[in-house]
Amino acid sequence: MNKNNENYSEELRIIPYTATSLSVVGRFIFMFLLYKNKSTNSLSLIFCILSIFSSGMWVYYSMQSNDTPMIVRSSIEISLLSLSAVYIIRNKVKLYYESLQILPGG
Length: 106
Hints:
It is a single chain. This protein has 3 helices and no strands. The model has no long low-confidence stretch (mean pLDDT 86). The termini are far apart. It is mainly alpha-helical and 106 residues long. It has one domain: Monooxygenase (Up-down Bundle).
């Protein structure tokens, strides 16, 4: 019986790291779509900002409970979402300045 509990426990330890990996892959897909579409979508920016705050809270909680997989996941997510937010803002600024150049001079 003890052998089965050890195997079960070992299997359970894989789940958080697998979930972390899937979450990070999902963020890379989100970043790729932002890049591909040259996004200036305000909803994407709001999503990034809310997710950054949410992940920050998860980092704090995970540190208090010594949950290493969650600390890793949330820390990576903060980094990737911050890059995504900067990219969206950069595209918004670039689009704004391009629109100023299109307007006829007075």
